[in-house]
Amino acid sequence: MKTEIEKISFGPTFEGVFSFFGLVLIPIGVAMFFVFETMFFAPLILIIGLIIFLQIKEVLINYSTKQIKSYVSILIYKTGRWESLEKYKWIGLDSINETKTFNSRGGSNTVKIKYYDVFLFDEYKKNKLLLKTFDRRLEAEKFSHEFSLKLNIQKVELPRIKPHERDLKRKYN
After folding, report:
1. Residue 36 reports pLDDT greater than 80
2. Cβ contacts of 77 within 8 Å, gap of 6 or more
């Protein structure tokens, strides 16, 4: 019997302790190459730094055993564990608007970012698992609809809440 496993890859994450550690190792490797002129250790440290910096986040879904695994992959080393899909009751689409303002002496620049996250939620909506992030709403809706049919779970639209309002609700409720 063939197991049906689907992989959803986020690509390099550039976040977390490992990514920061890899970012620190890259200039150390470059500095060692020019300062100490060691031909063996400098490229080795530089390559290790790049590999650690470019860790990849992925999600595996096994439809035959009804399990899901969210993990981070650094070459052949993978961290994460399998969980039952039975605990997730809903698939949700979250619309996120972020505005960032950068100030300098010459003026300020405001950048607006809008993206859509597709999550799996448990019945109390406390545990959520990010499946994928999209730039366009139609792609996110199509993806969430397809997965709601594949996993046979209900699709819900999350209310649009600004990031600072989320913090207030978490803090005072």
Report:
1. no
2. none
- Per-residue pLDDT band for 45 (boundaries 50, 70, 90) equals confident
- Residue 29 has which token pair? 């490797």
Nearest to 4 by CA among 84, 51, 58, 68: 68
Tokens of 42: 């400098």
Q: Which residue type sits at 168? A: L
pLDDT category at 131 given cuts 50, 70, 90 is confident
Show the tokens assigned to 35.
Answer: 């300062």
Interatomic CA distance for residues 27 and 79, integer angstroms: 26
The proportion of the chain whose per-residue pLDDT surpasses 70, expressed as a percent, equals 80
157 contacts: CB under 8 Å, gap ≥ 6: 92, 93
**DSSP state string for 102-160:** EEETTEEEEEEEEEEEEEEEETTS-SEEEEEEESSHHHHHHHHHHHHHHHT-EEEEPP-
